[in-house]
């Protein structure tokens, strides 16, 4: 059993890298927009986030009831199914089905991956290594996306579907890895409650102001992080129009994505070290401030220097992922852990789904002018949220240098 658990830790970084090898990421917006109008593209993205919302809590409950390995296997199967449908999609309805399958894959992974890693280290009496392993896993997350970005961009040059062919191959490899995992708490799991009772018990945990502040922050940042992510492709397209190289947009988009992810991977590897130096609160708020700055740059400037600056757009997520998981996961009972983490993701994705739906309703048909206005609204909304979090940051039990002084 010990050897099998050690295999979990060896394979886990590869799982994370392959799960986040989104070969389609540099071109998905362009692919959708080549078949559909901008409002339909935004509605598709809203449908994706709404679908994740609908499945987040049930998938977390499934994980707490039936185990981490089974849940990760289900996530891999859903991803493979989504890529198959994308390969044949030509209508809004087909894209919608693919988006729902993709959302299911993301939802069943959400919260379970972190729980799987933490419980594997606990089963091996190596919980002290969890924080750095989480940081390393986040690094693999971004490295996987970086490699997939350049390969997906190249594969999409003759046809956008080329990126989805690579995604399907990666999904099959992911499924093979999940089948080799072992359940970390086999024979020890204290099963969760029935679904409604489980969710209610997770909300009761928010009486702890430490978990409450961290959960609000997690929701806020999930919304904030996705806005530059959603609009960087049309931003690169607008830049290509400005410099009259529009035909190179997919290639430029993939190069930009790859460089972005490589920078984020480096930041992720240093995230626990940064937290130890300046504290959890300062680390999290610094990331929020940087993301607001990214939206401001994208709104005010369409230029090569601005595009270079937006290479930092994934650094906030890289900086907060490990410190946030380390601050939350060990403080939640294992029989509620995946459900609790999934609920955080649920409310964040619900917020972003509603944001996208409002953006789609407000769209006037002037593509970049609409997107620029959306970035402005997001910038001001983010600034208000940042101020509220700043004045309440004392609610959390800080870690790092600030807690030691």
Summarize the structure.
This protein has 17 helices and no strands. With 405 residues, it is mainly alpha-helical. 55% of the residues are buried.
- Class from secondary-structure proportions: mainly alpha
| Number of domain units | 1
The tally of beta strands, per DSSP, is 0
Strand content: under 5%
Q: Can you name the CATH architecture?
A: Up-down Bundle
Helix content: over 70%
Number of helical segments with 4 or more residues: 17
Radius of gyration equals: 20 Å
What best-fitting shape do the alpha-carbon axes yield?
A: globular
Overall residue-averaged pLDDT value: 88
Properties at a glance:
17 helices, Growth Hormone, Chain: A, 405 residues
Describe the structure.
The chain has one domain (about 1-185, about 190-405): Growth Hormone, Chain: A (Up-down Bundle), CATH 1.20.1250. It has about 400 residues and is mostly helical. It has helices at about 1-20, 30-35, 40-65, 70-90, 90-110, 110-125, 130-155, 160-180, 195-205, 210-240, 250-280, 280-300, 305-310, 315-330, 335-360, 365-390, 400-405. Helix 10 (about 210-240) packs antiparallel against helix 14, helix 11 (about 250-280) crosses helix 14 (about 315-330) and helix 12 (about 280-300) packs antiparallel against helix 16 (about 365-390). The radius of gyration is 20 Å and the shape is globular.
Blueprint of the fold:
Elements (H helix, E strand, L loop, with lengths): L1 H18 L8 H8 L2 H29 L1 H21 L3 H18 L2 H12 L6 H26 L5 H20 L14 H10 L4 H34 L6 H30 L1 H21 L3 H6 L5 H14 L5 H29 L4 H25 L9 H4 L1
Helix pairs in contact: 1-6, 1-7, 1-8, 3-4, 3-5, 3-15, 4-5, 4-6, 4-8, 6-15, 7-8, 7-11, 7-14, 9-15, 10-11, 10-12, 10-14, 10-15, 10-16, 11-12, 11-14, 12-14, 12-16
